[in-house]
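Proteins fold reproducibly. Consider a sample protein:
=====
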Amino acid sequence: MDMDMGANFLHSAIEEEPIDHLLEMLAASPLGDNGRAQLLQKLLGEGPCRQLGIYPIPAGFKLSVAVPVYNEKQWIREIVRRIQGVPIPKEIVLVDDCSTDGTRDLLRELESDEVRVFLQPRNQGKGAALRKCFRHCTGDVIIVQEAEYPRLIQPILDNKADVVYGSRFIGDSHRVLYYWHSVANTALTTLSNMFTNLNLTDMETCYKVFRREVLQGINLKSNRFGFEPEITAKIAKRRNPSWRVYEIPISYSGRTYEEGKKIGLKDAFSAFYCIIRYWMFD
């Protein structure tokens, strides 16, 4: 079925079939994922499809999803399920930071050809777990723990960006939680921007995407949540050429401490120190 025939078919079917049946027909079509993306672009237009993260994937492309894990027994199955549910060629690289709640047993059950699991010998922090993730990633683009990655990787596939940050504060819905955490996020992002001369809205976001060559040229040192200001400072320092940085709005449902949130006041002071340290020194 060519694109014009497919578009004409859907146009005529829209008035005759319930939307659920139309979605089933589209999913079952013989066009393949890229064919369906091209068909939807023809039907809906390029603009709406870009907003939805619908676009053709280059032949041979592979994504690495890096997921640092610590005491996530309650959530890890759902995290992996959501990542696997996005139809993009990928590998999922999970590094457990010496969990003590039974997470490691679940990770062994989840391991497969697509899901690769690595275990830290002792608890070292998020930054150390991410460094191990990055060492084992083999994809063309590397993203940190996100199920919305079709939207986040699109600027890279369009050759408009080398690095993409998923911002929690520029448009999409988010869960209402801790006021002082939002104040700290704003203050740390502002301070980071002053040193890096970037105009980010969410430096502390854990939803970041990188071309593989970006990470290959950076020597990361932070073990805990200092990873965020460190990677931002080192990306901003790059010259000749500079790395192109984009922000994309993401929907975000934060967690309470009862649900597993781990970052605290100590990490805010550490981030403040890392912003200055990694701008002045390597």
